[in-house]
Amino acid sequence: MSAAGHPITLAIPPDAVEHSQGAEHAPVTLIEYGDYECPNCRMAAPTPMLLLKRYPGNLRFIYRHFPIEEAHPHALLAAEAAEAAAAQGAFWAMHDRLFEHQAHLKPADLKRYAGDVGLDLVRYVAEMSDHIYLQKVREHIDGGRRSHLRATPTFFLNGVVVDVSYGMDALHDAVATAVHRGGTG
After folding, report:
1. Which end of the chain is more exposed for a tag (fewer CB within 10 A), N or C?
2. Domains of the chain, with CATH numbers?
3. The pTM of the whole model exceeds 0.90
């Protein structure tokens, strides 16, 4: 809820070029704004995958970047690395690798993960050196700010924030309710 007591809503609606899993036209869309260096994001990371398995065909999951640079000095570059992987068709593999090795997100580590997930390393190094994907990450950050984000992870279910500050059960319950209602609630 916002300070005025109104639900916080998503400023940037999902589109077809998002990093997503699940049915493209599912009645329920779950969007996470996350930070690869955030311990709470790492703990939350399995939840969307569990929900996708529980509600096949009914749920689409989208991941957006929201690195909190003041608290997590390596998160922005990690988000760029995920985008470089996405350009080579390996976003989710890199996404998972970054969370698995969250304590090691320095440039040399990121390059090693790029090799681990099968990226063309010459292309990866060139794109990372030129910060080709920084603008895309910054657009995600801007969208998060326009949606009044303050922390990560932040989840939006069909465009409305779900408060997970007391645990992921709230997200499980909200998704179950939305699926049961056919995406309308």
Report:
1. N
2. 26-180 (3.40.30.10)
3. yes
